Amino acid sequence: MSTLIVSIPENFYLQEFNYIIKVLLIDFLGLDYTLEMYDGDKVKIRLKGDESDKALSIENILFNTPTEEWLKESSLPLSPLPRWNILDDLPEVRLCKKDLPIIYGRLLSNGRYFDQGKNFIHLGVDIFGSCFFMLTRYEEIIVSERDEHERFPAKASLAYREGFLSRPIVNEYVEILWALLKRLWPGLERKQHSYKVLLTHDVDHPFVVYDQSWYQILRNVSADLINRKNISLSFQRIKCKVKNDPKLDPANTFDFIMDLSEKNGLQSEFYFITDHPAGTLDGSDYSLESPYIQVLIDRIYKRGHRIGLHASYNSYCDSQQIKREFEKLIMLAEKLSIKQDSYGGRQHYLRWKNPTTWQNWEDTGLNYDSTLSFADYAGFRTGVCYEYPVYNLVTRKSLNLFEKPLIVMDVTLFGSSYMNLKVEESFRYVEHLSKCCRLFGGTFVLLWHNTSLIEKWQKNIYRDVLYNII
């Protein structure tokens, strides 16, 4: 295998350079490299053993920030971002759109972001800094805006404001880097990625009748008759309550989900809440000690699907609470002889704090998280459709935890306080996001709740969404 020699400026940001260079070159491109420091201000890449001494020089903006301004507002990209029509210079690059927002960068002496000579290429785009900004969610430590659930909203993000939330911009930056390396050293070979769909299901309410009071059930029956005009659903609720049979519960759509996944050659992951310290905010007060929940989890595993943790509402900032919740899940897995090579999941309500939540998951021993999508707008919150190891911006350390970025949540698409899309609009938007993932051989992570499949028309929507993304 060929080895790249990456020379970086000798400054404060060695840990940050180490992290992002490894992620881009090894994890994403599968290239070998050695790292060295030099007395300069750019990132320079050469090929070991190349006697022609060709070199790629890349501007370094973010990691040239004065240390007193690191993680401060003055280090954020300036809006509006400049755009680069890349295909004028690099027509071979795979992109979602031909013009690319430049998160960090500067024009070169020729007035462009690209310059190539016989033995050199000079790029004015700070690829490493820009990708670091997106993958670590750098802005979310600095920008204080939050919604009613203390979540960083999409509309406060650079990606939303600059119109690139619907494209995996990190993947596009990686493609630029690859095109430049390939121009200089045509013999290089990269890692190949294959498009995948990961179906995930947060189990907030395994039942909507079985564990409910008659008062609540009758209210829902009234809504079935008056608002939803669904007589059969109202009868199903009453029948389930009278017979006290969870198998008849309208929210018991787990076999439907697994049947559809298996029909399409896919594996579903079901994330369970194991404790409910926030009361109704933590969904139905179901217990892992419930015989029916244990039967359900056992059936999920035996059908070849996976289980994971849906960490409770307030646990995103509470390491001990997450630990207790994960221990409950592991104890049940051992009781049921469930053996998985890894465990992951998602925070309830997509509540997440940078870098506290990632660190809590790391300390608990979880292998991966899939929380990072915005609740109010679907798209690429981290700018990428590959899973990747995460970085703690405060301790300045790489973690063993991987992020599997969530791309679409059902509630985000249809929620009246979120995107509030019509069905056809949602199909088009999801299909666009899927095409972007497919372009880079990424993983399309979808979250669909079992309670979003109660009525026939809801099941039909889910079928059509799957048809559009597989």
TrEMBL record:
InterPro entries: DUF7033 (IPR054297), Glyco_hydro/deAcase_b/a-brl (IPR011330). Signal peptide: none annotated. One of its GO terms (biological process) is carbohydrate metabolic process. Gene3D superfamilies: Glycoside hydrolase/deacetylase. Residues 124-209 form the DUF7033 domain. Pfam families: DUF7033 (PF23019). This is Polysaccharide deacetylase. It comes from Dictyoglomus turgidum (strain DSM 6724 / Z-1310).
